[in-house]
Description:
Blueprint: H1 3-13, E1 25-29, E2 32-35, E3 40-43, H2 46-49, H3 58-68, H4 81-92, E4 98-102, H5 105-123, E5 130-134, H6 143-148, H7 152-155, E6 165-168, H8 173-179, E7 184-189, H9 205-216, E8 219-223, E9 247-250, E10 261-265, H10 267-270, H11 286-301, H12 304-323, E11 329-335, E12 338-343, H13 348-356, E13 359-360, E14 362-363, E15 368-371, H14 379-393
Parallel strand pairs: 3-13, 5-6, 5-7, 7-8, 8-9
Antiparallel strand pairs: 1-2, 2-3, 4-10, 9-10, 11-12, 12-15, 14-15
Helix pairs in contact: 3-11, 4-11, 12-14, 13-14
Amino acid sequence: MDTRELLEWSARYHTPNYGRVPICLVRGDGMRVWDSEGREYLDFAAGIAVVALGHCHPRVTGAIREAAATLLHVSNLYHSAPQIHLAKLLCDHSFADRVFFCNSGAEANEAAIKLARKYAKERFASDRYEVIAARNSFHGRTLATVTATGQEKYQHGFEPLMPGFKHVPYNDLRAMERALDSRTAAILVEPIQGEGGVNVPDDDYLPGLRKLCDESGALLILDEVQTGVGRTGRLWAYEHAGIEPDVLTLAKALANGVPMGAMLAREEVARVLTPGSHASTFGGTPFVASVALATLATVIEEKIPERAARMGRHLVEGLRALAGSVPAIREVRGRGLLIGIELDRPAGPVVERCREAGLLVLTAGERVLRLAPPLIVERPDCDRALAVLATALGGPA
């Protein structure tokens, strides 16, 4: 079947909620993917910050084969060894004491919101249920998480939204302090806003939120769906701030492309999830837990976050040097290999020119280019991407 017919079928049979680019990707290896026409692309999108170890990493592929031939699914009515080992590994390498497994970042945030409400009601009062989130945030597409998301464009048409959410400006401690009251169950923020534009807060922001939560009894929930598993140059982005959350949500890179989410929590908080209070049929199956275990173990053992920090510095230095000669670049920001390039023009045409030159990049809002390559990226790949970006950004607005 030729590509044209495939794309015609896609237009005919899919729901029209994706603005897909007119290529069909069929194969990947490391930093590269190929389309159905045989064209090669350098992948600086990584499935939206998902394939941290690149495409078809041998250890991940080996875990997939072994797990698929051993045991796919039994449900959480029973114990399974891969899930137990993964939970222990996550707790051993984070602040957390307990882990709940699910299938996506939205589900992880749903679990965190439910946990916060149940904890607040049991510990404080029955009317303590509100969650304060940030404007320009992104927390998912379910009805609760799209309500938590501080961007109206994702909410339009799905009203009425769920009650119990407030939004304040990101990186504004005073605004957060004013919003806190006796009904606040939790503060929910991203350590770096990804979809909102790769916005990095001031150094005192997360410590300030931690202090507000300590003083008020509200839980601090950090959404690390995009920043977790080494993306920012540390295993978890909260480590940069020298604080620990009460609850952490993960997905994206956790199983290197196999759908998986997780919610991590402190013992005192997690214990309110008593039997039957929350569940997920497919959460942490033996198959996906085996893949995640191989992914996370590789990230830790091979010091992948340190590599992300080094390559991120190289990219940012190159981009800031480029900004001196390319007027389109207004600001370069980010941490590790989550990098935003704010432009003086819409980013969409630049993404298209990059793709035509064999480089896949992302947007993060209308005027921000986002680079989120696999964390295995090497210096020559970075230099190639910088060269393509230089040409693409020098094009017409």
